[in-house]
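$ ./design --mode recover --in tokens.txt
reading tokens...
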């Protein structure tokens, strides 16, 4: 689907926003309050699902307090750190609204930019947000992103250009996908690739990539890179043997 001319309709949406995080006590309260405020302007039906991914700081306690104050905020606690991919899959399974999205607790996609996506939701099953620039990444993250993107292009030839930022999925699609991947950087590519290959309506919109305001990023560790590579090659072999519907 083209993103040059947005549809004329901009419907009120029903959205579950998933915010996974590890040791994000510096960001969690601001992220949740900011997301709630933005969603209140965009829709009458939403939920913010905070996933405390085995944090050892006050992330979980702060999230629980926010949920006690606002029934639109839910908290899921991982007893140990499971990483972003597994946490995201858990959030997708728990989502209740018609659309599902996700974001980091440092809000690299500003929730105030939801208006850029909303016009496309009526006519799509998946909306992929493409970063204008990756200058906010550290040099190592830039390098790993380039290599990851090259491998994705070589192995799968995706139609969209950014598979590892933020996306919006119809719940009936996202909860029906037989996900094989669990790694931090390949759950969302698998969701997008399966949508493309199954004839779902996928479009891409552009938004600014925001710099982390506080705390420490957890992406880009060697173990996570190897885990992602294993998932990537595993899915390629699987679809060669059994196709995209298996």
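writing sequence...
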């Amino acid at each position: 689907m083209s993103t040059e001319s947005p549809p004329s309709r901009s419907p009120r949406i029903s959205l579950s926003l998933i915010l996974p995080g590890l040791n994000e006590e510096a960001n969690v309260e601001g992220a949740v309050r900011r997301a709630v405020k933005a969603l209140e302007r965009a829709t009458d039906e939403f939920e913010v699902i905070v996933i405390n991914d085995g944090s050892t700081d006050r992330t979980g306690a702060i999230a629980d307090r926010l949920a006690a104050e606002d029934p639109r905020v839910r908290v899921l606690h991982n007893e140990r750190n499971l990483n972003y991919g597994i946490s995201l899959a858990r959030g997708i399974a728990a989502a209740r609204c018609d659309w599902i999205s996700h974001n980091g607790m440092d809000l690299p996609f500003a929730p105030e930019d939801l208006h850029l996506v909303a016009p496309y939701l009526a006519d799509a099953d998946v909306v992929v947000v493409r970063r204008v620039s990756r200058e906010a990444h550290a040099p190592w993250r830039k390098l790993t992103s380039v290599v990851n993107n090259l491998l994705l292009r070589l192995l799968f030839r995706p139609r969209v250009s950014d598979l590892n930022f933020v996306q919006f999925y119809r719940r009936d699609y996202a909860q029906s996908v037989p996900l094989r991947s669990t790694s931090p950087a390949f759950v969302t590519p698998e969701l997008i690739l399966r949508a493309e290959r199954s004839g779902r309506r996928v479009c891409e919109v552009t938004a600014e990539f925001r710099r982390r305001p506080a705390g420490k990023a957890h992406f880009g560790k060697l173990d996570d890179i190897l885990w992602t590579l294993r998932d990537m090659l595993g899915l390629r072999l699987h679809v060669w043997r059994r196709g995209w519907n298996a």
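exit 0
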